[in-house]
Amino acid sequence: MYLDFSDAIKRLGLSTIQARYGNLFDMYERITGENAYQVPMRIYPAVHYTMGGLWVDYNLESTIPGLFVGGEANFSDHGANRLGASALMQGLADGYWVLPATVPNFLADHRPDGLTADHPAFDQVEAEVRDRTNRFLSLKGNRSPDSFHRELGKLMWEDVGMARSDESLRSALDRIPQIRDEFWQNLRVPGTVESINQNLEIAGRVADFLEFAELLSLDAWVRTESCGGHFRVESQTEEGEAQRDDENFSHVSAWEYTGDLAKPRLHKEPLEFEVVHLATRSYK
Question: CA angle at residue 24 from 23 to 27, to 5 degrees?
């Protein structure tokens, strides 16, 4: 494939393209000996991100019956290569169009063997859902579910985003419980449960987001290294590259709910590398 910048250069000017992509063009010329400002750049699929890639069929179902995999976690669109923005579009496509059609079809054709609606587990979950729904509808506050969603999203973007710091994560851990407390006191969900109620659906999702956001922030605060998509500003080289701490953080963090959202229990599962050993990624 060829990536031709000639139209962009005519439209924006050579200096603008150099300011935006100069480093990329310089690397390309060192590798190929070609000036991409003057001739189309040759691009081809190559191994890029390895964050995911489970096999799925056309319904996004994995080799485990009933286990569907969406977004960048599957291989369906990008495989071993991820061209710019395709992972984002894959998440949108899978979430908006594919899974809403394929998962219901699977559920319609597969009934849990030996389980009926009078099973004790069914009664328990049904009661929990009913109680939570009634709690949402009984609140007569002044804020919509969307307003809490926006506030939480802005906080996570600013304090727990691509670059996190001890200060920003502490700020998020202080603020999220406050937002959650106000959510359960000042929420207002119009409508009823007898018909389709998108406000009620959003309220349930935001309640889950608030719990997950606090755990995500805590996990990010505990991991004081920079690794993968997690960048701690305190953990970087003099040249601004991510700096791992393999001696202390070569493990998977598994958090256990203890009944108190503020006090989950951390379990560490060590990572062992026998064939491919750890090495620092460099974009130079």
Answer: 85
